[in-house]
Amino acid sequence: MGLALPTERHYPMHTYRIDPGKKVNLDDFDPAETRYAPGGKENAEQSLLQLNRQLEALQESLYAEHKHRVLVVLQGMDTSGKDGVIRRVFEGVNPQGVRVASFKVPTPVELDHDYLWRVHQQTPARGEIVIFNRSHYEDVLVVRVHSLVPEAVWKKRYEQINAFERLLTDEGTTILKFFLHIDPQEQKERLLERLEKPEKNWKFNAGDLKERALWKEYMKAYEDVLEKTSTPWAPWYVVPANKKWYRDLVISTLLVETLQNLEIRLPAPFSAQEIAEFRRQLSQEDRSG
Ligand code: AMP
Ligand code: MG
Q: How confident is the model at residue 5, as a pLDDT?
């Protein structure tokens, strides 16, 4: 099964998709570019409002149809905007059908299981959109960079992850994976902002500085993720994320286009007879009540 991949001509944002098996060098991706928003920030914000309304309607149909499941995976360095995407892209979407699952340092119970155990529990049900704020990819990112398991163990995980995602899509889940790409200069500014604003201090972690120092190692680990786990059934998109408005525009567009391609159908409406019968019952209730 898997996603029918639209052509670039009709869907320019799909150029951010990583072709399966393609060699990836993140230096070739400019985190600051905004090439599909020639009208700049103001225009993009108009488009974003429209996309947001479309997403709201599509989500309602998805929920009503109760057939497809949608999984959005967000990965990126600290401050890359995972929380911002969740706040902005999903603004106004009915919280009943959207759920966020955040993956933090595993608990002792989680560590006693295989690394996909906690992840599978959080995958979407029919009619549901689930956003992964970090994901099973941490098990080949932070785990690799900090040698939390031996190389022989994490090296096998790319194939295991592809098989896991294949299972999910075979069973009716649509998967979209976004790598929010920022550069170290942008991260520095965002970290400084967190220090400057007292109300943002809580977002600053001393640990973030240690991860920042490992930037090169992380980019290498991300390149392997993009190369080995962008599949026809669960593609990765490298999202230029230095500009928050552009990041949101890219993700909103890809999400709306993907949901539109699902050709969601609402359940058949009632027949005239059924409606007449229900009306009759309601009016009887009036008379007897
Ligand atoms: P944050 O997303 O900033 O709240 O931080 C969550 C932290 O949990 C990050 O530093 C992640 O790298 C870490 N984390 C998530 N999953 C794992 C994992 N499987 N093993 C180790 N650390 C993880
Ligand atoms: Mg953090």
A: 52
d(CA 231, CA 244): 27
Q: How far is the CA of 253 from the centre of ligand 1 (A)?
A: 28
Nearest-angstrom CA–CA distance, 30 and 133:
23
| Predicted confidence (pLDDT) at residue 1 exceeds the cutoff of 50 | no
Of 151, 129, 142, nearest to 259 by C-alpha is 129
Domain count, the chain: 1
Give yes or no for residue 142 CB within 6 A of ligand 1.
yes
pLDDT tens, position by position, 122-139: 999 999 999 999 999 999
Q: Whose CA is nearest to atom 23 of ligand 1?
A: 105
Residue 4 belongs to a domain: no
Whole domain around residue 122: which residue ranges?
Answer: 13-288
Say yes or no: CB of residue 138 within 6 Å of ligand 1.
yes
Q: How many residues does the chain have?
A: 289
Inform me whether the pLDDT recorded for 11 exceeds 90.
no
The pTM of this model reads 0.94
The residues, ordered by sequence, that sit 6+ positions from 157 with a Cβ below 8 Å of its Cβ are 115, 139, 140
* 229 occurs within a structural domain: yes
What CATH number is associated with residue 213? 3.40.50.300
Give the pLDDT confidence of 67-83 residue by residue, as tens digits: 999 999 999 999 999 99
Ligand nearest to the CA of 144: 1
CB 235 within 8 A of CB 18: yes
pLDDT tens-digit series, residues 203-223: 999 999 999 999 999 999 999
Residue 272 lies in a domain: yes
Give the residue, by CA position, lying nearest to ligand 1 atom 15: 104
In angstroms, what is the span from residue 214 Cα to ligand 2's centroid? 14
Q: Is residue 8 part of a domain?
A: no
134 lines ligand 1 (CB under 6 A): yes
